[in-house]
Amino acid sequence: MDRFWLVIKVVCLALIVILVVQNIEMVHVQLLGWTITMPMALLVVVIYVLGMVSGRGLMGVVRRLRHEDPKH
Fold this sequence. Notes:
The protein is an alpha+beta fold and 72 residues long. The chain has one domain. It is built from 2 helices and 2 strands; from the N terminus they run H-E-E-H. It has helices at residues 2-22, 40-67; strands at 26-31, 34-39. It is flat, with a radius of gyration of 19 Å. The relative contact order is 0.08. This is Lipopolysaccharide assembly protein A domain-containing protein.
């Protein structure tokens, strides 16, 4: 089973390397008047990480609301 996970990790790493190599061109991102220039691959990674952080925070709020005792 350890070999299976090693293969999965190597495949994921290879896909990430391919993503970075194929998306190295610079893009302009505008948000609230700010303009940032960054490689497309970095933008994808940043958006992915922001999604993970915000999703985890949202799930924490949902769990907290679900476990609160209703006070009538």
